[in-house]
Design brief:
Keywords: Coiled coil
Distance between the termini: 84 Å
Coiled coil: 174-208
Strand order of the largest sheet: 2-1-5-6-7-4-3
Pfam family, one: PNPOx_N
Structural class: alpha+beta
Organism: Tunturiibacter lichenicola
CATH class of the largest domain: Mainly Beta
Shape: extended
Number of strands: 7
Domain Pyridoxamine 5'-phosphate oxidase N-terminal: 43-137
Amino acid sequence: MSFASLLFTPEVKRLQERFGSRQQYERMEKSGPSHDRLTAFESEFLAERDSFYWATTGATGWPYVQHRGGPKGFIKVIDDRTLALADFRGNTQYISTGNLLTDNRVALIMVDYPRQARLKILGRVEIFEGEKAVGWIERVRMLGYKAVIERVFVIHVEAYDWNCPQHITPRYTAEEVHDAVHATEERLRSVELENAKLRKELAHLRAS
Protein backbone atom coordinates (compact mmCIF):
# COMPACT_ATOMS: atom_id res chain seq x y z
CA MET A 1 0.00 0.00 0.00
CA SER A 2 1.36 3.44 -0.89
CA PHE A 3 1.84 6.42 1.39
CA ALA A 4 -0.58 8.45 -0.74
CA SER A 5 -3.33 5.84 -0.62
CA LEU A 6 -3.26 5.97 3.18
CA LEU A 7 -3.20 9.74 3.55
CA PHE A 8 -4.77 11.25 0.43
CA THR A 9 -8.37 11.17 1.62
CA PRO A 10 -11.16 12.58 -0.56
CA GLU A 11 -10.95 15.88 1.32
CA VAL A 12 -7.18 16.03 0.84
CA LYS A 13 -7.61 15.38 -2.88
CA ARG A 14 -10.22 18.14 -3.12
CA LEU A 15 -7.76 20.58 -1.55
CA GLN A 16 -5.03 19.46 -3.95
CA GLU A 17 -7.43 20.05 -6.82
CA ARG A 18 -8.39 23.44 -5.47
CA PHE A 19 -4.83 24.64 -5.11
CA GLY A 20 -3.44 23.12 -8.31
CA SER A 21 -1.31 20.20 -7.08
CA ARG A 22 -3.69 17.29 -7.71
CA GLN A 23 -2.40 16.49 -11.21
CA GLN A 24 1.18 16.23 -9.96
CA TYR A 25 0.28 13.94 -7.05
CA GLU A 26 -2.04 11.83 -9.17
CA ARG A 27 0.88 11.09 -11.52
CA MET A 28 3.02 10.16 -8.54
CA GLU A 29 0.34 7.83 -7.22
CA LYS A 30 0.05 6.02 -10.56
CA SER A 31 3.68 5.83 -11.65
CA GLY A 32 5.80 6.34 -8.55
CA PRO A 33 7.20 3.57 -6.32
CA SER A 34 4.90 2.15 -3.67
CA HIS A 35 7.35 2.95 -0.86
CA ASP A 36 6.14 0.13 1.36
CA ARG A 37 9.46 -1.73 1.61
CA LEU A 38 12.60 -0.18 3.03
CA THR A 39 15.65 -0.17 0.79
CA ALA A 40 19.33 -0.07 1.75
CA PHE A 41 19.14 3.72 1.52
CA GLU A 42 16.42 3.96 4.19
CA SER A 43 18.18 1.37 6.36
CA GLU A 44 21.38 3.39 6.30
CA PHE A 45 19.47 6.57 7.13
CA LEU A 46 17.70 4.90 10.06
CA ALA A 47 20.97 3.49 11.43
CA GLU A 48 22.32 7.05 11.77
CA ARG A 49 19.39 8.43 13.75
CA ASP A 50 19.59 9.14 17.47
CA SER A 51 16.07 10.53 17.80
CA PHE A 52 12.71 10.89 16.09
CA TYR A 53 9.14 11.95 16.78
CA TRP A 54 6.08 9.77 16.58
CA ALA A 55 2.35 10.35 16.82
CA THR A 56 -0.22 8.02 18.33
CA THR A 57 -3.97 8.44 18.88
CA GLY A 58 -5.71 7.86 22.19
CA ALA A 59 -9.17 6.57 22.98
CA THR A 60 -10.36 10.19 23.28
CA GLY A 61 -9.44 10.76 19.62
CA TRP A 62 -6.66 13.21 20.45
CA PRO A 63 -3.28 12.70 18.72
CA TYR A 64 -0.18 12.66 20.90
CA VAL A 65 3.29 13.51 19.60
CA GLN A 66 6.32 12.26 21.53
CA HIS A 67 10.07 12.51 21.11
CA ARG A 68 11.97 9.22 21.28
CA GLY A 69 15.73 9.10 21.60
CA GLY A 70 18.71 6.89 22.32
CA PRO A 71 22.23 6.17 21.11
CA LYS A 72 22.79 6.41 17.38
CA GLY A 73 21.50 3.19 15.84
CA PHE A 74 18.88 2.43 18.51
CA ILE A 75 16.31 2.05 15.73
CA LYS A 76 16.88 -1.47 14.44
CA VAL A 77 15.96 -2.49 10.90
CA ILE A 78 14.84 -6.11 11.23
CA ASP A 79 13.86 -6.51 7.57
CA ASP A 80 12.46 -4.37 4.77
CA ARG A 81 9.05 -4.16 6.47
CA THR A 82 9.97 -4.25 10.15
CA LEU A 83 11.64 -1.93 12.67
CA ALA A 84 12.24 -2.47 16.38
CA LEU A 85 13.31 -0.22 19.21
CA ALA A 86 13.63 -0.37 22.95
CA ASP A 87 11.27 1.59 25.15
CA PHE A 88 13.73 3.07 27.64
CA ARG A 89 12.32 4.00 31.05
CA GLY A 90 11.25 7.65 31.05
CA ASN A 91 8.72 9.80 32.88
CA THR A 92 6.37 6.82 33.48
CA GLN A 93 3.32 8.52 31.95
CA TYR A 94 2.91 5.71 29.37
CA ILE A 95 0.73 7.83 27.08
CA SER A 96 2.14 6.50 23.80
CA THR A 97 2.10 2.92 25.07
CA GLY A 98 -1.48 3.25 26.30
CA ASN A 99 -2.57 4.79 23.02
CA LEU A 100 -1.00 1.94 21.05
CA LEU A 101 -2.98 -0.60 23.09
CA THR A 102 -6.23 0.85 21.72
CA ASP A 103 -4.99 1.94 18.26
CA ASN A 104 -1.76 0.38 17.03
CA ARG A 105 -1.24 2.84 14.19
CA VAL A 106 1.74 5.16 14.42
CA ALA A 107 3.29 7.92 12.31
CA LEU A 108 7.00 8.66 12.61
CA ILE A 109 9.11 11.54 11.33
CA MET A 110 12.91 11.50 11.34
CA VAL A 111 14.96 14.54 10.35
CA ASP A 112 18.60 14.75 9.31
CA TYR A 113 19.16 18.47 9.88
CA PRO A 114 22.69 18.78 8.41
CA ARG A 115 21.57 17.14 5.13
CA GLN A 116 18.08 18.71 5.28
CA ALA A 117 16.37 15.35 4.77
CA ARG A 118 13.26 13.95 6.42
CA LEU A 119 11.69 10.53 6.33
CA LYS A 120 8.08 9.84 7.31
CA ILE A 121 6.93 6.31 8.15
CA LEU A 122 3.45 4.91 8.76
CA GLY A 123 3.15 1.61 10.56
CA ARG A 124 1.43 -0.61 13.07
CA VAL A 125 3.05 -1.46 16.39
CA GLU A 126 3.32 -4.66 18.38
CA ILE A 127 4.33 -4.29 22.03
CA PHE A 128 6.43 -6.98 23.71
CA GLU A 129 6.79 -7.07 27.50
CA GLY A 130 7.89 -9.53 30.17
CA GLU A 131 8.83 -13.02 29.00
CA LYS A 132 7.65 -12.30 25.45
CA ALA A 133 10.17 -9.45 25.21
CA VAL A 134 13.29 -11.42 26.22
CA GLY A 135 14.42 -12.29 22.71
CA TRP A 136 13.53 -8.85 21.39
CA ILE A 137 15.38 -7.06 24.18
CA GLU A 138 18.61 -8.76 23.15
CA ARG A 139 18.07 -7.59 19.58
CA VAL A 140 17.55 -3.93 20.51
CA ARG A 141 19.99 -3.64 23.42
CA MET A 142 22.71 -0.99 22.96
CA LEU A 143 26.08 -1.97 24.40
CA GLY A 144 27.30 0.53 26.98
CA TYR A 145 23.94 2.27 27.28
CA LYS A 146 22.63 1.76 30.80
CA ALA A 147 19.01 2.91 30.40
CA VAL A 148 16.45 0.34 31.56
CA ILE A 149 14.46 -1.32 28.77
CA GLU A 150 10.84 -1.69 29.86
CA ARG A 151 9.43 -3.12 26.63
CA VAL A 152 10.11 -3.38 22.92
CA PHE A 153 8.14 -1.74 20.14
CA VAL A 154 8.09 -3.67 16.86
CA ILE A 155 6.86 -1.49 13.99
CA HIS A 156 5.43 -3.12 10.89
CA VAL A 157 5.95 -0.59 8.11
CA GLU A 158 2.93 0.07 5.90
CA ALA A 159 4.34 2.98 3.89
CA TYR A 160 6.97 5.72 3.96
CA ASP A 161 7.78 8.90 2.13
CA TRP A 162 10.69 11.30 1.73
CA ASN A 163 9.79 14.99 1.97
CA CYS A 164 11.41 17.97 0.30
CA PRO A 165 14.13 19.85 2.23
CA GLN A 166 12.29 23.16 2.09
CA HIS A 167 12.15 25.00 5.44
CA ILE A 168 14.52 22.58 7.22
CA THR A 169 17.14 24.75 8.92
CA PRO A 170 20.51 22.94 9.11
CA ARG A 171 21.47 22.20 12.71
CA TYR A 172 24.44 20.29 14.04
CA THR A 173 25.10 18.25 17.17
CA ALA A 174 28.22 18.80 19.25
CA GLU A 175 29.63 15.56 17.79
CA GLU A 176 29.00 16.72 14.22
CA VAL A 177 30.59 20.11 14.88
CA HIS A 178 33.61 18.40 16.42
CA ASP A 179 33.99 16.09 13.43
CA ALA A 180 33.73 19.05 11.05
CA VAL A 181 36.46 21.05 12.77
CA HIS A 182 38.66 18.11 13.77
CA ALA A 183 41.04 18.52 10.82
CA THR A 184 41.44 22.23 11.59
CA GLU A 185 42.10 21.48 15.26
CA GLU A 186 44.77 18.94 14.33
CA ARG A 187 46.41 21.44 11.98
CA LEU A 188 46.44 24.10 14.70
CA ARG A 189 48.08 21.67 17.13
CA SER A 190 50.73 20.89 14.51
CA VAL A 191 51.40 24.59 13.94
CA GLU A 192 51.61 25.25 17.69
CA LEU A 193 54.13 22.45 18.12
CA GLU A 194 56.16 23.71 15.16
CA ASN A 195 56.14 27.25 16.55
CA ALA A 196 57.24 26.04 19.97
CA LYS A 197 60.12 24.13 18.37
CA LEU A 198 61.19 27.19 16.35
CA ARG A 199 61.05 29.43 19.43
CA LYS A 200 63.20 26.98 21.32
CA GLU A 201 65.77 26.83 18.49
CA LEU A 202 65.78 30.67 18.20
CA ALA A 203 66.34 31.02 21.93
CA HIS A 204 69.22 28.56 21.72
CA LEU A 205 70.83 30.55 18.83
CA ARG A 206 70.53 33.80 20.76
CA ALA A 207 72.09 32.27 23.83
CA SER A 208 75.07 30.99 21.86
